[in-house]
Amino acid sequence: MAFGLVINAKLLWLMMGIIPDPRHIRLLKNDKAHAHRYANREEPIESPGRPHAPEYLSDRAREIFNDFVQRIDEMYPASETDLDIIVLYANNKEQLESYEMFLRKNGSTFEVLSPPDKKGVMHAMSVRARPEVTMLKECKALQLRILTEFGLSPSSRSRVNLKKPADKAENKFGAMPGASKTG
Q: Which range marks the domain in which residue 102 is found?
């Protein structure tokens, strides 16, 4: 019975979307109480280089790429290891923008006439959604998944636990000659 509870607790943990923190965040948190969970676990180490937009990207995709890297850098250092997924994001967002412009210009539906009957008379007209509507929906879903991967959606951002550096306390004896102002 206890074994079944452990499995159910792990499944519940995964279903709730609780993702274990990467090693560097656990070290920042000084999480000694849970260190035994990750003792024999190896994690891949990202490359130290900063990602740069590939030459084959369009000008708009390159602009999106650089803006996205800047947004990531505001939270944590972007890595060259993430290059492919950032390129995917830039291409996807450029495509999403083109679908949105097309749908604004042409509308999200179109009319289809039924084939004429034997006498050559058209009887019915139906209104259908453009295929671009479905493609736009798929682009938005992919964009949200990528943003979630990088911790840039509100719910995923709350799961990233980065500690701020401690403020240096002012030295009470700083006014004395030869003493430093900070502790």
A: 48-159
